[in-house]
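ok trying again, last paste got cut off:
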Amino acid sequence: MKREILNKNRNITAKLFILIFFLFLFCFILRLGYLCLAGKVDGINLKEFSNKRNTKKETLYALRGNIYDINGDVLAQTINSYTIIAYLDESRGKLNGVYQYVIDKEDTAKKLATVLDLREEKILSILNKKAYQVEFGSKGRGLTELQKEAIENLNLYGIDFITTHKRYYPNNSFLSYVIGYTSSSEEKDMNGLMGIEKEYNDVLTGTNGFVEYQKDLNGYKFPNSNEIRKEKVDGNDVYLTIDSNVQMSLETAVGKAKEESNANWIIATVMDAKTGKILGSATSPNFNPNTKEISNYLNPLVSYTYEPGSVMKTYSYMAAIEENPNWDLYNTNCQTGPYTIGDDVVSDWNKTGWGLIPYSRGYTLSSNTCVANMIKNYLSKQQLMDFYKKLGFGSLTNIELPNEYTGKVKFKYDVEVVNAGFGQGITTTPIQQLKALTAIANDGVLLKPYIVSKTVNSDTGEVTFKSKVKEEGKVASKQTIEKVRDLMYLVVNADSSETTGSSYKMEGYDLIGKTGTAQIANPKTGRYYEGKYDYITSFAGMYPKNNPKVILYVAMQRSYNSKVLPETVKTIVRDTAKYLGIFEETPELNKEISSYKIDNYKNKEINLVKEKLDELSANYVVFGDGEKVINQYPNEGIKISTKDKVFIFTNDTKTVMPNLTGYSVKEASVILDILGIKYKMVATGYINNQSISPGTVMNNEIEVVLN
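nice, full thing came through this time. structure:
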């Protein structure tokens, strides 16, 4: 009986189990059918969820445009950057008989340590990780082409590279405040923070694209899978008005001046007098945008405001002459020495003055009290104010650089008017001084300064913007300007007893200008510093006198050597005159000059290259006795004139020291860099002599000193 009951219970349990199973199966089939028909779970679209989970979207980063000088030399560029990776998973197997993963970790670590800035033990610890692939931290990112090549030459299994891009400034601190820098060197985070990089950020920045594809569990693309792609659009290139030859001269001259004067800061800028183009602008201290070790974030050219001192006397005299066209300043006298204005006394720099002298001599001797008398007798406060403002003082020049300051040109009381007349109590910027000088160089016509020549589509070469010379009105008559230029000529060329500027005299260069010495205001006290060296000294000038081609402005704060400023100015004038061909001999002037675009001469027979260059009437120099060309300067695509030098380097069996006498500092640097010769550059402008004789066979251990 018990057995029958037990069997009956078992049958019931079995039937119940079967019933539950079929109910579960029915529900599962029903649910599955619903999912197939509806495609949703809890409101989530399963198809979309699956696609998203198995779809990878990669950003195609647009390349940032390059920045070039006016000759096409690269000043800022986006270059390939590499991240090293190591594959550790043995499932990668072999490809064409080559292992696709790291085989010998100890040997790999030992060899990588010779290239990467990492200890062998650290590399080995990374290689011993349980992972499909590994990277090597910050030391394994941002690798150069040379580093990548060195690693590839190690012939290691399982080592690969991810190619990215980074911002690179090939000339380091060269023109740093003008060029600026980006927030990151990495392509995805590049954003201009200073200089042209900031001002033209939208132009330089391209538009990112993307690629979307199906991936496996490891994140790798399925073979033959369809992809959705939107191509990137690279940023446009920006060409500056800067001439690297001129800039190199300024950089070396300013660097030398900083060493010899120990000045707090120095700025030297050169401008094309007929167009307003900035040809070069150097400052000290500067910074390396590759490392971003910056102590000062203001560009001195546009952001330094300070009391300019006696260079303003030029514009005060210009205003008085313009308002009084019949004024004979050579035969009208002013009383120098202490000048009382109410409760204030204005003094000359020598305190006692020079007695009763002509106004013309008052200008060349930089007399403050002559200016005071001139304002009293020939100018009203409003006339002086209006003239300063017509020249652009107190306003932005709107040059293509960020963070430009306006300075302050305000004066109310009589003593403030007089102080303003000789450059104290008002503030200006270097770029405003340069702009005002254009009126003197162009018979009274004021020009807008500019530093961007054009922008170019980096893909098509199409010019998207081209700068033009912009006249901003006539501020004075030609007759007034001629009188002013005569005064500026006397400052530089008169006898030393008659002028403050005789140390700037240069035979054959016809340099004209005005010196400036200004006290430095203490922002805490509102008074002037009273130390022996608490001054800003400056020179504002141009050459040649009757038809100025070049304008220059040089200033330094707290120079401890008074001879440095004149020597710096003269070095800049000599070098720029030579670079720009302003004082060439007659045969050279009569020589026909044309332009052409540089071809790619690399790997070509030297005889064929010579024939081609001869046909173009090119000015070229060949280095080495080889039969094939292995390098060249400038590079392919650069447009130059027949006056510019072309350097051709052949596959010689030995490296021989060339004769660099007479070459510019830039030219010599290019030649030695390409030849791989170590050097120390002492020269500024041009090479006068070299420590190693031409023809000497060189190696990596020998260093040549260039003076």
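cool. Confidence is low (pLDDT under 50) at residues 585-591. The CA atoms of residues 334 and 474 lie 30 Å apart.
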